[in-house]
Amino acid sequence: MTDGPLIVQSDKTLLLEVDHPAAADARTAIAPFAELERAPEHVHTYRVTPLALWNARAAGHDAEQVVDALVRYSRYAVPQPLLVDVVDTMGRYGRLQLANHPAHGLVMSSSDRAVLEEVLRQKKIAPLLGARIDDDTVIVHPSERGNLKQLLLKVGWPAEDLAGYVDGEAHAIDLAEDGWTLRDYQAQAVEGFWAGGSGVVVLPCGAGKTLVGAAAMARAKATTLILVTNTVSGRQWKRELIARTTLTEDEIGEYSGEKKEIRPVTIATYQVITRRTKGEYKHLELFDSRDWGLVVYDEVHLLPAPVFRMTADLQSRRRLGLTATLVREDGREGDVFSLIGPKRYDAPWRDIEEQGWIAPAECTEVRVTLTENERIMYATADAEERYRMASTARTKLPVVKAILDRHPDEPTLVIGAYLDQLDDLGEALGCPVIQGSTKNKEREALFDAFRAGEIKRLVVSKVANFSIDLPEATVAVQVSGTFGSRQEEAQRLGRLLRPKGDGRQAHFYSVVSRDTLDTDYAAHRQRFLAEQGYAYRIVDADDLLGPALPDVG
C-alpha cells in the first residue's frame, strides 16, 4: 500500500481522490486512456474502456505506459487481471492493417493469421473484401475502406490504417505569420495530425483550433473543404483564414443556405450538407465536387449521421476533426475514431490555462427554490413536461438579475434553450435576443456590436454554443440547457475562455431549480468540465436575493 491518489478496481473503474496532493498529476496521467463517469466533490470515478485504450494506442501510448501510470498512482496493488486485460486490449489495435499493395491496391493484412480468419468469417465484413492474396492478406474494395474500419472496431479488432492518402488538387496555402507565430501546443497538434495522416485534435474553446486548421491546410497545400456548425461560424473561419494565411477572399467559397460557392477552399455548414430534397441528400455531392486534399470537420463531436455515411467514402483523403470535447451524447465516439481518425492531440484545459492562453474561470451553480405554486405545477405535470417547467421557472428571473447586478459593466451572455424563456429574459433585462430565427445579417451585427463594447449583454440560444468568437465575454449565465448534455456545458463555458487583455477571471453561472430534474441534468452536464479540473461552487439563490423570493409563479 502506498499513499497514491488512485484506487484501481477490478471492474476497470478508477477512483481518484480529488483533494490528494498528487491528484492533478494522476488525472493528467490517466486522461489518455480513462473516461470520467462521475464527479462528486471528493472522489471522481473513471472507467478504462477499450475505445479509450485504442485511442491511447493510436496516439502513441503503449501498454507499458498505461500500466506504469496505474501502478505509480494506485494506493493499493493494482489487480493483476486488469493489467493483463489492458495489455491484451491495447494489443488488439493494429493486428489488422490496411495498406496499399503495389499490384493489388487496397489490402488488409495481419501478422496474426487467426485474427484474419476470424474477421473473414464475419457476415457483415466478408462482402467488403475481395480475393485472398496469400495466407495473411486479402484485397479490400477501395470504396469500403471506411465501412470496413467501422465494422472491425465493432468486432473488437480496430485496424491501423496505413493505406495513405491522395494528395488532392494542389493549391498554394501558407501561413502569414506577420507579428504572430503558432503556439507550441498548436504546432504540436499539427505535427501529431500530419504524422498520423488523419484524426482529431482536442483543444479547449478559445485555444485557437482555427489556427490548427489553417496550419494543417498550409501543410497540405491542397484544396480544402471545411465543414462548420453554422453560417456565422463559417464567416469567422473565412475572416481568420484571410488574416492568418496567404489565401484571398476570392479563393474561399461559402456553401450555406444563402450562397453556393465552390472554390479552392470551400466552407460549408452541416445544416446545408444534410438538408434533404425529396428524400435525398443532394448537397452531399459537394464532397465529390472537387479533388479535395483535406477535409476539416469543425466541432467534430456534432457530426450528423449523414455526414458520417459520406465520410466513409472519403477515407483516401486527409481528414482533420477539431473539437473541445469528444463526448457525444449519442454514443457514436467509435464512428469518429473509425471514420475521422484517432485522437492525435489532446491538451488538458487547465494546462492551457496555466500557460496563459485561455482565461481562468470560476464556475458557480445557483440553486433556486421554486415557489409553492411552481412546485405544485411541477409535481402534477406530465413526465415529459417536467424538465421544461423546471428549466423555465420564472423564479429564475430575479436570480439572473441579481447575478447581472454583481457584474454591471462586464460583457455578459445569458444562455438558454427555450425560446419563450429567452424572449422573457430579453424583455426583462432590456437585452437583444439571438436565436435560430434571427437572420444571419442581424446576428453578425449584434455580435460585432458586442465585440466592440457597444452592447454589454446578449441573450442567446444554442446558436451561440459553437464556434462563435466573442473574446470580450467574461460572464455567462446559463438558465436552461439541452437536458444533460456535457458537450453543451463545455461549449458554453468556452464562450468565456478567450484570454482577457487585463487578465480578468471569467465567471460561469448555471441557474438550476432545486429538487427537480433540472438539478439532475445539471450534475450530468458538469461531468466533462470536472474531468478538466473545473469545480463548481454551489450557492443558494437566497444568498443573492435575501431570504425570501417573491412568488412570481
UniProtKB/TrEMBL annotation:
It catalyses: Couples ATP hydrolysis with the unwinding of duplex DNA by translocating in the 3'-5' direction; ATP + H2O = ADP + phosphate + H(+). It comes from the Bacteria. GO terms for molecular function: 3'-5' DNA helicase activity; ATP binding; DNA binding; hydrolase activity. It holds the Pfam family Helicase_C_3. Residues 190-344 form the Helicase ATP-binding domain. Residues 399-546 form the Helicase C-terminal domain. Keywords: ATP-binding, Helicase, Hydrolase, Isomerase, Nucleotide-binding. SUPFAM superfamilies: P-loop containing nucleoside triphosphate hydrolases (SSF52540). Its EC number is 5.6.2.4. It is an enzyme of class 5 (isomerase). Belongs to the helicase family. RAD25/XPB subfamily. PANTHER family: GENERAL TRANSCRIPTION AND DNA REPAIR FACTOR IIH HELICASE SUBUNIT XPB, RAD25/XP-B DNA REPAIR HELICASE. This is DNA 3'-5' helicase. It comes from Pseudonocardia oroxyli.
